[in-house]
């Protein structure tokens, strides 16, 4: 039997995409790999996002779980998927805190479903906190050294 996980589209507090919100029919990575019709998956810490690389063209939604504040493996999963060309919705779920939002965006997350709703003003301030960045990342912003030499 397939374990169904995931957040409802109603749980998404912030989203930076124009397409339709993907439904919540996520399955685990192991279950996803055993199916041919799944279009959404949930990555837990310890799952290897690289297992999904052959299937990026069929994925509409990847949820990446942050079960506790101190576990940063989910950032790496997001980065791996975006650098491999994944263009679908990448949703951060779980213990998503306002001070992590800017970093999550830089890693490629474009939707956020925190366990506890975040203050809207605090979140918007966090998303806009750094106008300039120093390194290339999944958000495709131009770093300061490139801007300096225009």
Structure overview:
With 150 residues, the protein is α/β, with parallel strands linked by helices. Helices cover 24% and strands 18% of the residues. It has five helices and seven strands. It has helices at 29-33, 73-83, 101-107, 120-127, 144-148; strands at residues 4-5, 14-15, 26-28, 40-43, 61-66, 89-94, 111-114. Strands 1-3-4-5-6-7-2 form a seven-stranded mixed sheet. Helix 3 (101-107) links the parallel strand 6 (89-94) and strand 7. The longest helix has 11 residues, at 73-83. The termini are far apart. The mean pLDDT is 84.
Report the principal-axis shape.
globular
Which value, in Å, is the CA radius of gyration?
Answer: 15 Å
Tally of extended strands? 7
Question: Which structural category fits the helices and strands?
Answer: alpha/beta
Specify the biggest β-sheet.
7 strands, mixed
Strand order of the largest sheet: 1-3-4-5-6-7-2
Task: Give the assembly state of these chains.
Answer: single chain
Helix content: 10-25%
DSSP strand content: 15-25%
- Continuous helix count: 5
Q: What is the string of SSEs from the N terminus onward?
A: EEEHEEHEHEHH
Describe the structure concisely.
By secondary structure, the protein is α/β, with parallel strands linked by helices. Helix content is 24%, strand content 18%. Strands 1-3-4-5-6-7-2 form a 7-stranded mixed sheet.
